[in-house]
Amino acid sequence: MLLSEIAMILKARFLFGRELCSKEVLNVGASDLMSDILAADSAGSLLLTGLTTQQVIRTASIAGASAIVLIRGKVPHQAIIDLAREENLPLLTTPLSMFVASGRLYMHELKGLDNGR
């Protein structure tokens, strides 16, 4: 699914990376534990999280994630947005909770990092 489609489904807005909205997202990891994201096959995934720290950007970059969506309308400090820009990693924010955002993406046939097992 394209990142632009995900943005519409989640009513999300881009903090960085609107020009990368044609990126393909293969699956979704929803977690505030970055070790869970690193432990899974996260390449090409979307990371849903409530964390707004540098570690989120670094983890997503190392894991090969396609983009990050911050839940509950969170907006990080400008330094975090700048780091996402340096990593060329789209960063979005949605007013939805993690539960609702995950459910909406699942309803649109995106699977979790465990591929629905």
UniProtKB/TrEMBL annotation:
InterPro entries: DRTGG (IPR010766), Ser_kin/Pase_Hpr-like_N_sf (IPR028979). Gene3D superfamilies: HprK N-terminal domain-like. It comes from the Bacteria. Residues 5-102 form the DRTGG domain. Pfam families: DRTGG. Homohexamer. This is DRTGG domain-containing protein.
